[in-house]
Amino acid sequence: MDFWSLMWADFKSIVTDKAIAITLFGGVLFYSVLYPLPYLHEVPTKQQIVVVDGDHSSLSRQLIRHADASPKLEVVAELNNINQAEDWIASGRAHGYMVIPEGFRRDLIRQKGVTLAYGGDANYFLIYSAVLEGLVSAGIDAGKYVQFNGLLARGSSAKQVKHDLEPIKLNSVPAFNPSLGYTPYVVPGVLLLVLHQTLLIGAGILGAGQWGREGYWQQVPAMKLIFARVSVFALIYSLFTSFYVGFCNYWYGVSVQGVLSQVVLFLVPFVICTAIAGVAFSCLFTRRDLPTQVLLLISMPILFVSGFIWPFELIPSPLIWIVQVIPAIPSIQGMLQLNQMGASWSSVAGFWWQLWGLALVYLLLAYLGVSYRLNSK
Description:
Elements: H1 3-16, H2 18-34, E1 47-53, H3 58-69, E2 73-79, H4 82-90, E3 96-100, H5 104-109, E4 117-120, H6 125-153, H7 158-165, H8 182-210, H9 222-251, H10 260-282, H11 290-304, H12 317-323, H13 328-340, H14 345-375
Parallel strand pairs: 1-2, 1-3
Antiparallel strand pairs: 3-4
C-alpha cells in the first residue's frame, strides 16, 4: 500500500467512525458555540434595584436619579422599608437595594458623615458586584455634588473646585482586553485546548480500535503508518485551527494583534506535535472508550496549569516543569503572547522550538508504541 492510499484509508476510517467523527467534527463545532455563549454579554448592565428613601429631600431624589442613570443600574421601585426591599430581592424582582437614611441632605450640608446602606443577592457574584459598584459610584457623586456647591458658596471658582475635588484623573486603557470582558480573556486559550483534546481523543479512539484486530494498518511499516496518520490529522486540524483562530476570534470580538504569517508559522508545530502525541497516546489503549475517559479527567487540570486561567506565578514550580511535556501548554502560552498581546517572534521562539522538540520525543514514543502494537498481534 502506497503512502497516499494509506492516508486515504486512514481518512475513511476517521469519517466513517461515528465516535471519531462526532468528537472531531461535532465537538469542534459544538464547543465553538457552546463555550463562549454564556459570556457573550460579558459585563452585567442595568441590574434592577429598589430604593428605600428615608429622607425625601431634593438631594435624595437626585441620588436616586444618579443611580438610575448609571449604566449598571435601573431603579424599578421606591419602597417604604427594608423588609419590602428584601422581599423584592427574595422574589427575584430586584437584585439589590439602597437605603437613604433620614437627615441625609441635612447631614451632608453640615459636613457630617452619612451612611448609605446597600444590599443584594450575592449568589450571582458578577451581578452583585455590578450593583454595589453602581451604588457606590452614585453615592460618591452625591457627596461630590454637595462639596462642589459648598465650595462655590464660599467663593471658590468652578475651575478650582473641580481641581480640588479631582486632583488626579485616571485614564485607564486596557492593553490586551479592551472590553475587559470574559470572552477575549479566556476563549482564545480554551479553544486551543479544545483542539488539543479533541485531536488526542480522535487519534486515541482510532488507534485503540485497530490494535486488537486485522486491517490495512498491519500491512505497512510502523513509521509509514505514523507519518500517514499524522498527515491526515494535521490536514483536518489545519482547517479546524483556521476556523478557531481566524473566524471565531473575529466573530467573538477577540483582540488580535499578531502577524498572520507568524501565527501560521507558530501553529504548524502545534498541530503536528499534537497529532504525533495522539498517535503515541493511542498505543496505551486497546479499548475505544478509555481515551475519552482519561482525557476528560485531565482536561480541567490542564486548563488550570496552562497559565492563563491561573497565573504561573501561583502554580508550584515542579508542576510547571512537569506539564511542559503537554503540547497545549507552550502552544497556549505562545499563541496568547503572539496573537493577543502582539509579542515579537523572538519572544515566542522558545515555545516554537519547544513544540518541535516535543514532536521529536513523541515521534520516538509513537514509533515504539506502534511497533509494539503491530508486532503483538
